Amino acid sequence: MFCNTSKEIGGLGHGLKRKEDARFIQGKGHYVDDIKLPGMLYMDIVRSPYAYAKILNIDASKALEIPGVLAVITGRDLEKYNLHWMPTLMSDTQMVLPTDTVMYYAQEVCAVIATERYIAADGVAAVEVEYEPMKPIVDAHKALDPGMPILRPDKGKTDNHIWHWEAGDREATDKLFANAEVVVKEQVYIPRIHVASIETCGCVADFDPIEAHLTMYMTTQAPHAIRTVIALVAGHVGLSEEKVRVIASDIGGGFGGKVPVYPGYVIAIAASVLIGKPVKWIEDRMENLQADSFARDYDMTCELAATKDGKIQGLRIKTLADHGYTDAAANPSKYPAGMFSICTGSYDYGVAFTEMDAVYTNKPPGGVAYRCSFRVTEAVHAIERMVDRLALEIGKDSAQLRMENFIKKEQFPYHSPLGWEYDSGDYGPALQKAMDIIGYDELRKEQAEKRKNGELMGIGICSFTEVVGAGPSKDFDILGIKMFDSAEIRVHPTGKAIARFGTKSQGQGHETTYAQIIAQELGIPAEHIHIEEGDTDTAPYGLGTYASRSTPTAGAAAAVAARKLRDKARKIAAYLLEVSEEDLEWEVGKFFVKGAPEKSKTIQELVFAAYTNHPQGMEAGFEATHYYDPPNLTFPFGSYICVVDIDKETGSIKIRRFVAIDDCGTIINPMIVEGQIHGGLTQGLAPAMFEELIYDEDGNMLNGSFMDYLVPTSVESPKWETGHTITPCPHHPIGAKGVGESPTVGAPPAIANAIIDALSHLGVTHIDIPITPLKVWNILVEKGVIE
Ligand code: MCN
Ligand code: CUN
User: Fold this and answer.
1) Beta carbons within 10 angstroms of residue 227's beta carbon
2) Which ligand has the nearest atom to the CA of 724?
3) 221 lines ligand 1 (CB under 6 A)
4) pLDDT by residue (tens digit) across 82-98?
């Protein structure tokens, strides 16, 4: 059957069911823990009960007596091969295993290798480690105080300062603030949180001593980058990059937490190389929560300057960033604070300055993960809280204040005061749409009535601008590797295709959406385009899936590669139909002669000819590869409105409604985008009201299990009402922008603004997230609402 409409072939804009779900919903996904290799051994890790301590002795003798325990690997063992340290993706260094000092609670101390998973765990319990605990640095504000221990003398440091970063015009900003009619200021702290994906991290390291070949099955969002890091770290022990194959099969959620290189991976590799057998390591839930890469932990002093009638004029933010004991964020080299400088938001003003200092503390490393777009979550929280704060100060409606200050459609491309070129946007209609759906004016009237009766109801808005799709390679790299991404398409003689990518889905639906892009460009039905990611031996080199970059980079690569093939098809069509290329016209799935539509060749016929009857002099076959280097980032945006009711006796918070209008340019698959937004909104609700990693003054994590670390479920989630506007990206081949992280970026300030709005008449100007019923109850007591 010849299909020739976009809908029939599953092209752009159609809610095609996800191809990958056939195996997921039948429990047939291929996760790393499903891998069982002959002779495979198991690894488990001894972890530190102290946040900062000298290791006096590790006694493995009792563990080694357990039948089935084969080895206990310590930092001293790795030191012999110079494998005890590794680089972080931020060019810092991180212990694989410590030789003398542990730096955070739950840090890896040594590893037990055994024939069974449970024997390895018994071995862990039997290892005796003698520590000399020291007073850790837990509070980032004290990290630079005199008399504090220097945590990284190995780096030649004489204090605990990692880096200072700034953007904007300090002098002009200071001058503006000194003379401004209105200045509002708040201290906004965003605590540490954890992605807590359903699947924890893990790997099977399979070293073949005969071939000196390593196959590394692992949970990674960036397989190629990991292969290069492995070759760089372990090249000197014979792991040469052509003999390293990283395979990331199905992944049960990444959310950024599967970008970093964790010590467990390196120890498993070392164990497999030393023992010559495959070694599996799978974290348990508590290890995942306690030791893996965290997100956020920014303490931001935010100031906004404006005129009395509400014209925003300038922004100033000073941030203290707690990076734990090493900077293991995964930001582009040039941007130690990620894309934080998008903090000027969706508003038009000329002056801004932001500066940040990062410090070492005795906490786990990390600093990027959690659906964050490289720190855009923090930036958006800051500006969207401050706009509400200004509205409160000058007594103006917060929607009206936003409308008056938005960058206007005709101002795009817009140069922000902190150096970005926003590619496109149309902010007013998105907010207006959200206001119309939720019935904004009515809600404000209802709120006024309720206040008279002492009832607490709040309305919160967030009109965010995102920045995703790193990146133009002139500015973006990870460890020096430029941030392009790639697609390779091979069409077989019968017109069925396989396409491979340098990105790696963790649940985002790439097997479906990439096929849709190629279907649209080539006219081959999406169901006949097999998408493969995650195997470095077969996929073209790419930087991976994070920072909502897959659509902006690899999605673009797919379209460009497909267009190369369409050009080839045109040449073959001209040859077969005996006309010149200019005489041909394309409609989905076929070329026909202008003015003689009955003279046509379908894409299937043209592909077949590429193998059976191609013009002399033309290369046979039907394959194309493209490495796409985007000319700019993409700037998706949206407006979210949240309505809350607060029980004035208990402080409990009910989200009555939440309307989210997103604009990610051309939508490839509306159903997948809606799914991304539902999931992302729930992950925005999480830090707004529930999640926070809490440490005591000795650096012990107090909520390192799901008993205490509150992840919202469907019970806590409101009914998300979603909608969209479409402002195509002007520089992307199909006009698409990324969307995966937008909802997690936009939801927290909308929720926080709503709760604070409900309490603002009591004199409340800010509450740090997560805003729990207890925090609200305490405020109600303090304000005399509860006696
Ligand atoms: N899409 C679309 N139309 C657009 C934009 C995107 O149909 N205009 C589709 C894409 O084709 C893709 C999905 O939406 O199938 C997300 O695309 P994109 O915004 O490009 O983001 P990535 O594919 O790069 O995914 C990364 C992003 C990030 S950084 C985090 S964190 C996150 C997120 O995606 N982690 C996730 N969503 C997740 N969803 C699941 N299920 N699991 C995760 O770990
Ligand atoms: Cu910041 S979490 Mo996503 O970029 O993988």
Assistant:
1) 22
2) 1
3) no
4) 999 999 999 999 999 99
